[in-house]
């Protein structure tokens, strides 16, 4: 089974920064990483 992770939080709390760092780390360890950014505003 493929692991799925969801990051949720209020505006300007560091979600994107966290994911950028996590993606870099996991990719560096050889994991294949895919992302979808969903913005409900607007």
UniProtKB/TrEMBL annotation:
Coiled-coil regions, chain positions: none
Segments forming domain Molybdopterin-guanine dinucleotide biosynthesis protein B (MobB): 4-42
A Pfam family annotated for this UniProt entry: MobB
InterPro entries for this protein: MGD_biosynthesis_adapter, MobB_dom, P-loop_NTPase
GO MF terms held by the record: GTP binding
Organism: Flexistipes sinusarabici
Transmembrane portions of the chain: none
Full protein name: Molybdopterin-guanine dinucleotide biosynthesis protein B
Superkingdom per UniProt: Bacteria
One GO term (biological process): Mo-molybdopterin cofactor biosynthetic process
